[in-house]
Amino acid sequence: MKTFFLILSLNFIVTGLFSQVITFNHTVEFTTDDAGGLKAHITVTIEKGEPGFTYMLYKGNFRGEVFIKSEPTSEKSYVFENIPEGKYFLKIEDNQKRPAGITININKDEAAKQ
Predict the structure, then answer these.
(1) How many angstroms separate the first and last alpha carbons of the chain?
(2) Domain residues for 45?
(3) Residue among 33, 85, 91 at smallest CA distance from 65
(4) What are residue 89's DSSP bridge partners?
(5) What pTM does this model have?
């Protein structure tokens, strides 16, 4: 019984040591197009995670339609360009399929804050 407990404890400790989450920063730069419509460039920078990142932007929320999806990459920075007004969910997965994400609103109120 003691041996069984020790093996389970060791497995938990080793798994905990090697598991990692994704941490990232993002910035949103607002612009207007020739017709006066609001557009945004979203820059994502990974701080922590296993390379093989896939960057996704969903319309609405994380259950919405995928608007843009990158191929897996080792790059720790990605830019979504010319994103029109709306609500989006930014999701990043690393090579272990561990996700991280945040909701981003592209609208005149958000642009006015900058």
Answers:
(1) 61
(2) 21-112
(3) 91
(4) 58, 103
(5) 0.79
